[in-house]
Amino acid sequence: MACVINTINAAEVIKVMYRIEKEMPRKLREAGLAKFTVKSKKEKPLK
Description:
Elements: H1 2-23, H2 26-43
C-alpha cells in the first residue's frame, strides 16, 4: 500500500515540477535543474 501511495505522490510531484518549469523563466529553471542535479548526485554517488 505504501508503495502505491509513494508512486502516486511521485507522479503528482513530477506534474507540479513540470508545470513550474514551463512557467518559470529559463535562467531560474536552469538554476533549479543545476541544484537538482547536484542534489541527486550527492544522494546517489556514482560507483
